[in-house]
TrEMBL record:
One Gene Ontology molecular-function label: D-lactate dehydrogenase (cytochrome) activity
Any GO BP: lactate catabolic process
Protein name as annotated: D-lactate dehydrogenase (cytochrome)
Enzyme class: oxidoreductase
Top-level taxon: Bacteria
Sequence ranges assigned to domain FAD-binding PCMH-type in this UniProt record: 39-216
Cofactor: FAD
Family, similarity comment: Belongs to the FAD-binding oxidoreductase/transferase type 4 family.
Gene3D superfamilies reported for this sequence: 3.30.465.10, 3.30.70.2740, Vanillyl-alcohol Oxidase, Chain A, domain 4
Amino acid sequence: METTITSLIEELSKYLETAQITQNETLLEQHSKDESYHAPHKPLAVIFPKDTTDVQHITRCCSQFKVPIYPFGVGTSLEGHVIPNQPGISVDFSLMNNIVEINPEDLIVRVQPGVTRTQLEKELKKYGLFFPVDPGADATLGGMAATNASGTLTVKYGTMRDNVRTMEVVLANGTTIQTGTKAAKSSSGYHLNGLFVGSEGTLGCITELTLKVFGIPEHIAAGRATFPTVHQAIEAVVSVLQAGIPIARMEIVDEDSILQVNQYSELDLSIEPTLFIEFHGNKSGLAEDMAFTEQLFSDFDCTNITFESDTAARNQLWEARHNLAYAYVHGYKGRKMMITDVCLPISYLADAISHARLMLDIYGLPGGITGHVGDGNFHIVLMFDPHDEQEIQFAQELNEKVVAYALERGGTCTGEHGVGTGKKKYQQQEHGEALTVMRQLKQALDPDQIMNPNKIF
């Protein structure tokens, strides 16, 4: 392999600048891992493309030498997606970070894959626009599309798959395709957007995205509602959804997680199961929605509900929620974090979360429950000792039981984090014969298995 990588680098040097190719030990280490608990593996080299043409050269050269490609954004993934688990190169898209075009009239924006969520958000504000997919990390938009990321606003605005109009993708053989159009809808051909969004770099490298954007709402109100139990809080969520209230965000944070939020964000929130909620709309409509929600929550013994329309107070609330994972890492120094990620039909959600809490108590691991419960997605943030074999086993068993509970009720093993290496073992159970079709698509588009191999399958 050493001879092969030397030959590959020599070939790439014909097309790329010297500074775009590195085997610097520090950078190899940086690209050996993500934010997950999965074991790191260093790439043989790190390549920094500047444009689509560079990516075409990289894929063609790697195809020629049969060297695997591991696309890399900023490394915030949670299931080992970017880890080079067999000898290959890491393709870092950080230099492809231009916002190509903002089109307010059509409510779309074109970006390169290395643009981060907060970078786009800052530029869109100048036009009175925003992009609604908001995972907790400041991920790249290419990485978010690769994993079909979502976030706190999914209940109203949908996931990445719902907000991508078209993508430019370079396939394993260097061919470049467009997966869709700029139009709001189409009945023409196969839905390639749906195929490539969530493909985790196993079918090609995303080199440009055209995304839907939205006007910043006229009025926004956020609030917190506390309940005696998590079960009652989730039942309240279901009642709001069934009533058709157009809520923008609805997040559950349990007692253990509120404790971590208070310590990390220096807040003084009541240590009770809490729903973080937000409404978008016009002033009179919001008042009615908030009053109706408060009435529904009272049916489930809501102990307190407060609303904030002040921008700074709202931002503080959601910043605390987004920083929850980091709060756990800070609060349990020396431990590793595992985050479960399942999604179920909302009618099963309350019982699923009660089951997850029971598993936490049985295994005795520190952690808490949080999630985008407005769309049936929740997480357990598990903190385990990476040097304790029993705790590692307990964390894995707990994760498996939570996943099994979701799959048995028509849910999925991952609502937003993706499969990577961590969720591969559940794919057959979840998809059945459809997994064979997925394998056939992979084989057709990547016959040499160089695009992020050993992920998903």
